[in-house]
Design brief:
351 residues; six-stranded antiparallel β-sheet; 20 strands
Length: 351
């Protein structure tokens, strides 16, 4: 059975077009069938001239259901666009970072040939990333049903004024305040917008929902981490006429008039990401954010093992018998000095 790999690239960057051509050539030489969309193939031909690489056109020669893997050439935004393409399917995404941080990407541009070789040899694993379902209500009716891999962000619609909101967890109101917005994110999105808003970094294998206020004018407006079984909700209050706007992954948007309600729950459809490196998430944090780790020594290996011993047991000594302490001698008072002397003896200072 023929193996097909879909190549999605950032068509606005010549570097991405050149990388797409390189991937197509290497896949074709290895016996795999490269697949591209009609528009992206036209952009690549316009930038680089006629490529002459045998390939198939998506939705013309083949459908997404026949794709084994999607290679994404670009930054996190391109990967989020690819996630939209494979929504609801079991097709994994493998990102090659051509942007800045590229936290969702698995490899860098310099490792492109090696990455393609891993794809050819099926030398990769697949992990599932939790997504969220988003429902928007306005004037008592549902106006939008969508989803997000990273986050849903509710922001103020006008620069001049904050929006007034009330937050809710599992059907119970929690707090009301004015703010620039609120981010409700997945663990994958904890290193994106929620991170910039001051939220915690959550390891991808931890299933949880995050709620992070943006520039809240309140004493209690801290980031929350709740169960994936919970429902988060935000209502835009009608105290003012300030409108809001909602963004899902920075790609899908809708206006929020006063009185709007946004509900977020865990989705039943995860996004599958292909991994070629079994790198711990902590190491990815250090590499992507260039965190300073100078001075770290870690465990000393055998030396540490040799120094490890059982903690000695210190027994309490037997209690000692109490020692009698004679009472302190009291200095004689003026009354004591005037008291009669014993018989046969003359009291001092008496006439």
């Amino acid at each position: 059975m023929s193996r097909r790999v879909l190549i999605l690239a950032h068509t606005g960057r010549e570097e991405a077009m050149a990388a797409a051509l390189e991937v197509c050539l290497q896949l074709q030489a290895s016996g795999l069938i490269p697949v591209m969309s009609r528009n992206e193939l036209a952009d690549m031909s316009a930038h680089l001239g006629f490529t002459g690489v045998p390939m198939e056109i998506l939705d013309v020669d083949v459908t997404l259901a026949a794709i084994e893997l999607v290679m994404v050439l670009g930054g996190d935004g391109t990967i989020l666009r690819a996630a939209e393409e494979v929504r609801g399917l079991d097709v994994p995404l493998l990102g090659v970072n051509l942007g800045h941080v590229g936290f969702l990407a698995e490899s860098e541009r310099a490792d492109l040939a090696q990455t393609v070789d891993w794809v050819v040899r099926r030398d990769y694993t697949v992990e599932e990333r939790m997504t969220i379902d988003v429902t928007v209500w306005a004037q008592g009716r549902k106006i939008l049903q969508t989803w997000a891999l990273n986050e849903v962000a509710i922001e103020k619609g006008n620069r001049e004024r904050m929006i007034e909101v009330v937050t809710e967890v599992d059907g119970r109101p929690l707090s009301s305040f004015g703010c620039d917005g609120i981010v409700m994110a997945t663990p994958t999105g904890s290193t994106a917008y929620a991170f910039s808003a001051g939220g915690p970094v959550v390891w991808p294998e931890v299933e949880a929902l995050l709620m992070v206020p943006i520039s809240a004018h309140a004493l209690f407006a801290k980031p929350l981490v709740v169960s994936p079984k919970s429902q988060l909700a935000v209502e835009v209050l009608t105290r003012t006429e300030a409108h809001g706007v909602m963004w899902c992954d920075g790609r899908r948007t809708v206006d929020l008039p006063p009185g709007s309600r946004i509900e977020v729950t865990k989705s039943d459809h995860p996004v599958r990401l292909a991994r070629t490196h079994q790198t711990p998430f902590s190491a990815r944090l250090v590499r992507k954010f260039e965190l300073p780790i100078e001075g770290w020594r870690g465990r000393a290996g055998e030396e540490a093992a040799a120094r490890t011993s059982q903690i000695p047991i210190v027994r309490s000594p037997k209690p000692m018998a109490p020692v009698a302490v004679p009472p302190a001698r009291k200095a004689p008072s003026a009354t004591d000095q005037a008291w009669p002397a014993p018989s046969g003896r003359r009291a001092p200072n008496t006439p």
